[in-house]
Amino acid sequence: MSEYINENKLNRHNPTIAMILSILFAGLGQLYNRRFLKGTVFFIVEAAFLIAFLDFLNIGLWGLFTLGEIPKIDHSIFLLIQGLVSVILIGFALALYIYNIKDARKDAIDRQLGKKKPSIIEAARSAWDTGFPYIFVTPGLILLLFIVVLPLTFMISLAFTDYNLYNSPPRNLLNWIGFDNFVSLVSIPIWKNTFFTVMSWTIVWTVVATTLQIGLGLFLALLVNDPRIKFKRLIRTFLILPWAVPAFVTILIFSAMFNDRFGAINRDILSHFGVMIPWLSDPFWAKVALIMIQTWLGFPFVFALFTGVLTSISKDWYEAADVDGGTRWQKFRFITLPHVLFATAPLLIMQYAGNFNNFNIIYLFNEGGPAVRGQNAGGTDILISWVFDLTFETNNYNMAAAISIIIGLIVAGFAIFQFRRTRSFKEEGNI
């Protein structure tokens, strides 16, 4: 008789049946398991979600695939945004739906094993203990999705449409065109010439300007850290002063100083040698000026960073090197440099990534100029400033979005590759 009762209980709380019921509608599996409060909550949540968002999701998904059907009535941009929001809402709903199914199955298995049904207070306490991290992470995750992920996916979506000045809603409907924008970057002459020219200059700008500011900062830090140097605090204060001045103020001052006609560099310095350099009107000299300005702006931070690291290196290492007959170069190569790079490598990598997208100096100095014949970008435009011009000057939103994706892939790929090779991000070990 007891075996019959136990078998009847097993059949009554079959995990498969609980899962099927939860798949049909959230909460039914919990009600089947006699978890009435939890089942009611799941049931109400799904019912409320369907009532509140069913029409919104229907229009959103339709608009995401079609981008509208009637010009001047359907707005492709609004439909695209509504579609992306719908995808996010569906993602939340699916996560809760899957949790409901797994919970129903787990409850049914516990009932089969004869585990005691927890009281409401015990269930609430257990949910609080296990879900504490998720409770506090969820609001931030929601904000992240709508503040970061949604605009990012919207930009990525525009790269696969024909959204530009001559085809903009609501007058016209947008169309999905696949990878045509990316193909145009490397096939249509004006786009091809501009893209590869700007890309080359962006790489040169990033490598040269960042390496110079790091090299200058390291050199000055080593110099000031030398025991023979006096008045270290005063020297460090003067070297950090450029960092204290807002960057945009410094850039605007330098822009005036490098002016071809009335700038102080040409008029008060180079004029004594009979030289007048076209800093703003010639692309080559404009690039040289930008690299020098960025070196001036960037070295104080690197200097401060390296100074702090150098003071933490034990003097015993250098004394041991002196005993072994090590030269200054050997001590720098095998003691100072490895220690400095180990401690600062992630921040130095971010310096390169930051200069790759350093829009401020390019725009404030001469707005990416001067103009170059046969290209739709200025002579000193880097990729990010070119994207700005395409967006706000010529309204080529689709091409700007395509280039933005390329920028993101380059920066992310470089950062991931370098971080994985950096010992600072690996298990701590001996230098």
Care to describe what's here?
- With 431 residues, the chain is mostly helical.
- It has helices at residues 2-12, 15-24, 28-32, 36-66, 76-112, 120-158, 180-187, 189-225, 232-244, 247-257, 264-269, 283-310, 315-323, 328-356, 359-366, 383-392, 397-421.
- The termini are far apart.
- The chain folds into 2 domains: 2-158, no CATH class; 183-425, MetI-like (MetI-like fold, Orthogonal Bundle).
- The chain contains 17 helices and no strands.
- 74% of the residues lie in helices and 0% in strands.
- Residues 199-418 form the ABC transmembrane type-1 domain.
- It is a multi-pass membrane protein.
- The chain crosses the membrane at residues 16-33, 40-65, 77-99, 142-161, 203-225, 237-258, 288-313, 334-354, 397-417.
- It is found in: Cell membrane.
Instruction: Tell me the CATH superfamily of the largest domain.
Output: MetI-like
Secondary-structure element pattern, one letter each: HHHHHHHHHHHHHHHHH
The rough form would be described as flat
Number of strands: 0
What gap, in angstroms, lies between the N and C termini? 73 Å
Q: Which structural class do you get from the secondary structure elements?
A: mainly alpha
- Main beta sheet: none
Q: What is the CATH architecture assignment of the largest domain?
A: Orthogonal Bundle
Strand content: under 5%
Assembly state of the chains shown: single chain
- Number of domain modules: 2
* Mean pLDDT across all amino acids: 87
CATH class type of the largest domain? Mainly Alpha
The number of helical segments is: 17
The radius of gyration is 31 Å
Percent helix, as a range, is: over 70%
Keywords: Cell membrane, Membrane, Sugar transport, Transmembrane, Transmembrane helix, Transport
Subcellular location: Cell membrane
Protein name: Maltose/maltodextrin transport system permease protein
Transmembrane segments: 16-33, 40-65, 77-99, 142-161, 203-225, 237-258, 288-313, 334-354, 397-417
